[in-house]
Amino acid sequence: MIFEKQDYQQECINNIITLLDGFDFKRHDALNLKDCLSQFHAACEIPVKNLSGKLNVDVLMETGTGKTFTYLNLIFALHKAYGQNKFIIFVPRKAILESVKQNIRLTKDYFYLEFKRHLKTYTYEGVKSPSNIINHYIKNQDELSVLLLTNSAIDKEGNILNKNSETLFNTKSIFENIADLKPISIIDEPHLLKGEAFGKYFGKIGTLYFRFGATFAKEKEHALSNVAFCLDSINAFRNYLVKQIRIHSVMQDAQSPFLINADSKSAKIAFYKAGILKQITLSKGEDLGKINASFNGVSLVKTTKDKAYLSDGATLEKASLKLTQDEISTLLEKAIDLHFEKEAFLFDQNIKALSLFFIPKIEDFRQIDNKGAPFIKTEFERLYKLKRASILARENLSPSYREYLKRDFDESGNLRVHQGYFSGDSIALNKGKKESSKENIEANDIKMILSEKEKLLSFQTPLRFIFSVWALQEGWDNPNIFTLIKLANSTSETSRHQQVGRGLRIALNQEGKRVTHGFLKGNDNAFYKINYLDMLVSGEEVGFIEGLQKEIEASSFIGVASALDREILAKLGLNERKINQFCDALETLNAVEFDETNNAYKIIAPICETMQNNEERIKSFLSDEEYHAVLSAFKMAENPTNKRDQIINANQPPEKVKIRQNLAKEFKELWQTINAQSQLSYQNIQKTKLIESIAKAFNESHVMCEAIIFESKRYNPQTNRIITEQSSTLKIRDHANALQKEINALLLDFAKDERLPLKFTLELYNALNKEHFTNSPKKAFKLLKGIIKDKLHENLLSCVSYGFCQNAFFNTAFDKTDPLYFEDGSPKNEIEKHKLGKYKSVQTPSQNYLYETIIYDSKIEEEVSKEGVQKVENKSIEVFAKLPKFKIPTPYKNYEPDFAYLIKDEKGTKIFFACETKGYEKESDIPKDEKRKIEYAKIFFETLSQNLKNAKKEIRVVFATRINKQDLLSALKNALKETP
């Protein structure tokens, strides 16, 4: 398995190292930590800034984003930065502990290469464990080591760790001796470790601890606080770090309406219309004909908590939570179909597909006490063999995939593609050799599922269908789970988010490489053709999609595009009255509308722009701080690079927008031209000149000396603030001697972290003022990092080039994934709405706009789409369109112009005008990195125009950025002026 540095994981580590810069690891004082956090939050964009006054530092990371890897990395980083040697990892379940052990084993070589240190691991696993813990973990205090514990190892007075040991030669318990080492603790899945008994014994440690979780408890005492890093579910998805989720609800034919809930006056009823789940709330006396015509004349006459009585004598009840054998069989068949739909394609991509089934009870899969054949296992085998036979009968099946399927049976004729893992299996594994070959096969498969991830992911292993009774929950997941099936309609509080979390991780190929967005060169279509999770549930499990969406929104800290979330507004500091005022104001301003069915405000226009355009009105009831907190949340929500929906209802076809066929024929050449394959390259980079410019800027800057300052502070409970009463400088720190010994290691780390060639880094250092590093190595390296970024950009602008292949402008074929045209070049009739934007306008588009409906992400896009401008000076606009996902590669990620115009002059010469509409008031408001990308885009279009000229094409391509209130004429004039 290949491990790589992920930017977001490194950001988490850097945040923690930065915030602990002033923390005293000898005292482990909560007020000291609070001070560190206050300074860190003042300088860093963190959505949750509430402080607990305890010694916790919290990290929120979505399931599947490498939480365990990150906290193992943190152990090495804290050892390196602050000399910490002793760590404890607390987990709530044995399965999670096994998963952590597996991660430590898999990452051992990676972390040794990074840090040149090994991490010694100790696990409490019973009577024999204490001697190892005492003789090594406790007594060898200089050893970098971690102790793995479940909460049950310490949460009772009678636990072995809470007893004395003669070998320690003192009156303290083993656990108290561990606490004396001042170990730093890491709590994995903190929402499951909030019990009073655990808290009592954990509190004895009294040192800094980290809580890593995708879910945090809502109770104030255990809620998310002291946050160092926040990667919630929505942000993880938008940054292409987890799979998309597609929910399939499988219902029986002619499924009857059923009750969701009721009170004394009304009933909420679910029903299916063309296979799509609908909900309606009916009051007493209302006609059920609203559901379908067969109920005309039938009304609701009486309701109780669990039943609704109708006028024709029928009764509607809540859906059964137990599936019949027919329903299970239908789900199994659909699951096998979904698996095979993607398996051959994934096989060709060198990726093995796995499917995970949650079943009602062990007896459904494993024969217990000779009580008869297990139904689910027997039925799966029957259906699988039928489907496999139909697949093998296909003539166009690839030979290698055919050979893969032939390995489904072993030499004895046993089907080897499926196995179960159930609670207690991990204990049974340790009991030695099994009595029969069947038991040995079972034991080896269980071991593979639990702890041999690489083997399970190999094509050499036929096992790819896994069955469990919720035993595989937190602590177990697999990147190649592509289909997840619920055969048990759970009434437990196991969250839907935790259920889908078993398959959210990005896929791995046979080389152990993650198939990331970057690995696929930023191609959205290619990424989501691989990285999606099919979740299959019974049609009787009402509201699964809505419930999952609400759970994801509740655990996230940005406003979402579908509905206003009161919980998010409350987290941002608004009380109930202000939340109501905010909702009312947005409804009046036509940014939201109330959805009676779902009892929520549906967002129908960009909230951020609505707030900015009506700032005075919103600030009449929100404070300045509240206004900016809410604005920031919606700004993050409304400008994502990834515009895909995180959760898709697979039963419902995606909303589409019609393409105007006559205009599409005109637009084709423009679309094909700007999409011509290009290669970003760098030529004649002047290394010497670059070093000189970096050194000049660095040497002319000032780096202040670090001082040891004595401060006297006190906490004011009335203002909830720490007040500095006295401050004085004790001495100036001198880093000269330490720097002389460590500079080579520091430069090596800097080169690795910034991905710079080591030779370049050493040459650059020789040109720098060494006094800056003596004053403060940390400040000097931070300054250097920023200067390198600026100067590299300036240098690259003169060196970057875009190359187009020779026949780029003569190839008339289209890719089959093209959103606008078929492979033969004929225009498609419609395009999926999400490829153009989030919001649908009621306004009528311009007559020369490519689509029949305006879809937009910002108000300026809506305005542009309905512009009736037909002529610009002596030039006519033939057709224009909002562009579906058009990207230009730049050294600073991709740049995405959003509109393109086909313009003709009096002589019939074509001008292709690409434009990005910016919702900024003036050009100076555009962020620095965005300006850089614009400069590269200009080079791209200049090069494209020149290449067209060289290819004897009578086409001119121009580009401009159009600021909020700038009209089309001035934007085009500027572009024609700037582009030769």
Automatic annotation (TrEMBL):
InterPro entries: Helicase/UvrB_N (IPR006935), Helicase_ATP-bd (IPR014001), Helicase_Restrict-Modif_Enz (IPR050742), P-loop_NTPase (IPR027417), RE_endonuc_C (IPR045572). Residues 48-234 form the Helicase ATP-binding domain. GO terms for cellular component: cytosol. GO terms for molecular function: ATP binding; DNA binding; type III site-specific deoxyribonuclease activity. This is Type IIIR-M system restriction enzyme. It comes from Helicobacter pylori (strain G27).
